[in-house]
Amino acid sequence: MAPLITFKAMMMGHNNIMSSNLMPLCSNKSGHRTKPEINCPLFGENPRLYLISGAKAATIPPSPAVAPSPEKENTSGVPRRCHGAWTSIQQEYWEGELDVQGHIPTWLKGTYLRNGPGLWQIGDYNFRHLFDGYSTVVKLQFSGDGCQKIIAGHRVLESAAYSAAIKHNRLCFREFSETPKTQNPFSHIGEFFRLFSGDSLTDNANTGVIRLGDNRVVCLTETQKGSILIDPETLKAIGRFNYNDDLNDFLIQSAHPIVTGSEFWTLIPDLVKPGYRVVRMEAGSNRREVVGRADCRGRFGKGPGWVHSFAVTENFVVIPEMPLRYSVRNLLRAEPTPFYKFEWCPESGAYLHVMSKHTGEIVASVEVPLYVTFHFINAYEERDEEGKVKGIVADCCEHNANTRILDLLRLHTLRSYHGHDILPQARIGRFKIPLDGSIYGELETAIQPEEHGSGMDMCSINPLHLGRKYRYVYACGAKRPCNFPNALTKVDLVEKKAKNWHEHGIIPSEPFFVPRPGATREDDGNILTSSLLNAFHINK
Predict the structure, then answer these.
(1) What was the pLDDT predicted at 33?
(2) CA torsion sign, 450 to 256 to 527 to 56?
(3) Pick from 473, 368, 481: which is nearest to 427 by CA?
(4) Three-class secondary structure of residue 540 per DSSP
(5) Which of 102, 165, 300, 449 is the most buried (most CB within 10 A)?
(6) How far apart are alpha carbons 356 and 316 in whole angstroms?
(7) What is the distance between the alpha carbons of residues 154 and 133, in angstroms, rounded to a whole number?
(8) Which element (helix H / strand E) includes 380?
C-alpha cells in the first residue's frame, strides 16, 4: 500500500467517476498549471493520494448534546494544533501536474471528481459546523495507456450562496447550522415566507457530485435548488439544474440519489404531510416522475425522518424513516438547536418502507430498532427455493442510535482535538425486512465492530454490485484514539473480517473502488483515496 502520488486534496465529500473507467479535486485564479509545492495553501502539508489494491490491505489491531456557537478565537495564548483537513482553502482555483510516486495501472483512464466543504469562513466570521463549508470541487485526470501523469485541479463552486457571500462579505443564505443575521426585529415574519418559498435556503452544493446517464455532471446538496451543473474539465458552474416538473415546491431532497446509465432515483421528503415521494428521472431528461409515496408511520405527528441517503435493489426502493426527524420549528430558529434542523424523537419509532420500482406499491413497512445513519451501503433481495423474493437485506453505516456524532462534527471540536478518543462507535448495521406482511424487521450487526476499530462511515462498493448481493465494503474506519474516521477499511461480509490501513496523522477521504476491466472477482480493482499526512497548522 505504498503512496502513489503527493498532492493537495479535499478530505470530505463524495465522488463520481466518468470517462471509460473513471470520474473528484480543487483550483489559483491564474489558471496556470503548476507543480504543487509542499506548502500549497489549498490542501495543507504533506497530502497524498493512495491507490490501493482492492484485494490487499495492511491490518491494524482492533481497538449530552449542547447547542453550538460560532467558532471562537483562541485567546488563551497557547497555540492550538489544527489538522489541515479542517482549514479553509486559500485559492479559489488551482490546476497542476502531480509528482507521481509508484506506478499507475495502465487501464486507469478518465477523470475522478469529488466535492465537499472547503471554505468555512467569510471575512472574519467562522462557520460552526463541518457541513456549513462552501463547496469545493476537486478533480484528478488519469491519462491511461501507461502514461504516468496526473493532472489535478480544484475550484470553489460558484453557487448563489457563495457568490453572495463574497459580494457582501457576510452570510446571505441559510446553511446547515448558520442563519444570516439581521438587525430588524420584525425580520422573522418575512423570514418565515422566505424559508417556505425556498428563497432563503442555500444552494451550496457541497454534498455529492453525480454523472447522469447523458454525461451531464451535477453537484448536489439536500436543497433542490442546490443542484448545479458543472463543466467536468474546467470545474466551472454552468448554472442551476432546472427540473422540468411540478415537484420543486417540496424544497428538499436526498443528498445521495441512485444514478445508473439509464435512470436517476431519489427521495423527496414532504414536511407538510409527513412522508416521502419516490421519484425517477430517465437519462437525458430533466423531468422527474413520481413512482409512489410512502407515508410516515412516526407516532405523535412528528415530521419525516432525515433521508441523507437510501438504498435500492434490482426491483425495490428502501425508504428509511429515522427517529432523527426534520423539524419545521428548528428550521425557523435564528440560532441552531442541539440537533440543528432536526429533532431526536425516539418515542416516535423507527421504520423502513419498501416500494416496488415497477408499481409504486408499498410491499413492506416495518418497525425496526432505533437507528442513526448518514449513509446506506447497499441492499439486495433474498429469494426462496422457487425464486420468489422473500425479503430485503439493507446495510448502512449505523451509529448505534447515537446522535452525538452530529454535534461532534462542529469545527471547534474537530480543530481543538487533543488526542482523546471521542469518536462515537459505529458499525455496519444490517436490516432484514421480510415481505410476508410482518410488521417488524430486524437490525443486527453485520460484523464485529472491533474488526474496523468501531468506526464506520463514508462507504463504497464495487458499483457493478449495486442493488445485488455483494461481499465487500470499502469505508473509513478507526484507529483509536481519534475524533474522526482515520483508517481505510475493507470489510469481508462473508468471512466477517476486516483489513485496515492506517498511517499516523492522516485523515483519509471516502475510498472509491474502481473495478479492473474484465475482472471476475468482486474485489479485483483499485481504491482511490486522498489523505492529509501530518498536516497540522498552529492556530494562535
Answers:
(1) 39
(2) positive
(3) 473
(4) coil
(5) 165
(6) 5
(7) 15
(8) strand 373-383
CA distance 477 to 510: 10
Q: Is residue 125 within 8 Å of residue 144, measured between CB atoms?
A: no
Q: Give per-10-residue mean pLDDT for the chain (540 aa).
A: 29 40 32 34 42 39 39 42 80 91 89 94 91 95 87 95 95 90 61 65 95 96 96 97 90 95 96 96 97 94 95 98 91 75 95 98 98 98 97 98 94 90 97 98 98 97 98 98 96 98 90 95 93 46
| Residue found by looking up cell 485541479 in the block | 153
- Radius of gyration from C-alpha coordinates of the chain: 22
pLDDT on residue 183: 62
Three cell numbers, residue 431: 436490516
Alpha-carbon distance of 527 to 475, in angstroms, equals 10
CB 456 within 8 A of CB 429: no
List % helix, strand, coil for the chain (3-state, nearest 5).
10, 40, 50
Please enumerate in sequence order all residues whose Cβ is within 8 A of that of 316, keeping only pairs 6 or more positions apart, or say none.
354, 355, 356, 357, 363, 379, 381, 392
Q: Which residues are CB-neighbours of 459 under 8 A, at least 6 positions away?
A: 375, 377, 397, 473, 474, 475, 476, 510
Q: Which residues pair with 538 in a beta bridge?
A: 81
Q: How many CB atoms lie within 10 A of CB 147?
A: 13
Cα separations (Å) of 113 from 155, 232, 394, 400, 482? 11, 8, 27, 31, 27
Q: What is the DSSP string of 507-536?
A: EEPPPEEEEPTT--STT-EEEEEEEESS-E
Domain borders along the chain are 3-539
